[in-house]
């Protein structure tokens, strides 16, 4: 997160990200802090409905098809924040998307990496 006055490493913050008419709210922990540059945040808790909003955004940004919301298999699925075995993959997707937004990673390479993560 770009900010001139970042919080100290280890701080837990509430974050709200708004995109069009949707918002995502979660608790996050500061994992790195650089005065004058910004801070890195790792999501640590979010309501399941909030996680679904964020997952939908990630899928849209990666160019992948958004799964139907009312299928039985989707209603039984665990979100990355509920299921520890998927958390690393979730964080990697967030990192790739952040790098694309910052211009460090181009769209073609970023989307290719996101597709590989979903195999």
Give the ordered list of helices and strands.
EEEHHHH
Strand content: 15-25%
Count of β-strands: 3
Q: Helical residue percent?
A: 40-55%
Q: Biggest sheet, open or closed, and with what strands and sense?
A: 3 strands, antiparallel
Radius of gyration: 15 Å
Category by helix and strand content: alpha+beta
Could you explain the architecture of this structure?
Helix 3 packs antiparallel against helix 4 (107-117). The chain has a three-stranded antiparallel β-sheet with strand order 1-2-3. By secondary structure, it is an alpha+beta fold. It has helices at residues 48-62, 72-76, 84-102, 107-117, and strands at 12-19, 22-34, 38-45. Helix content is 42%, strand content 24%. It is globular, with a radius of gyration of 15 Å. The protein has two domains: 1-45, no CATH class; 46-119.
What are its keywords?
three-stranded antiparallel sheet, alpha+beta, globular
Give a topology summary.
Blueprint: E1 12-19, E2 22-34, E3 38-45, H1 48-62, H2 72-76, H3 84-102, H4 107-117
Antiparallel strand pairs: 1-2, 2-3
Helix pairs in contact: 3-4
Summarize the entry for a quick read.
The protein is α+β, with helices and mostly antiparallel strands and 119 residues long.
């Amino acid at each position: 997160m770009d900010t001139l006055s970042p919080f100290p490493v280890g701080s837990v913050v509430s974050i709200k990200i708004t995109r069009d008419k949707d918002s995502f709210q979660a608790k996050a922990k500061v994992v790195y802090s650089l005065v004058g540059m910004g801070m890195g945040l790792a999501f640590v808790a979010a309501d399941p409905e909030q996680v679904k909003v964020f997952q939908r955004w990630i899928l849209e940004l990666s160019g992948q098809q958004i799964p139907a919301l009312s299928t039985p298999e989707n209603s039984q699925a665990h979100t990355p924040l509920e299921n520890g075995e998927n958390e690393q993959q979730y964080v990697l997707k967030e990192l790739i998307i952040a790098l694309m937004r910052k211009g460090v990673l181009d769209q073609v390479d970023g989307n290719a990496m996101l597709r590989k993560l979903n195999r």
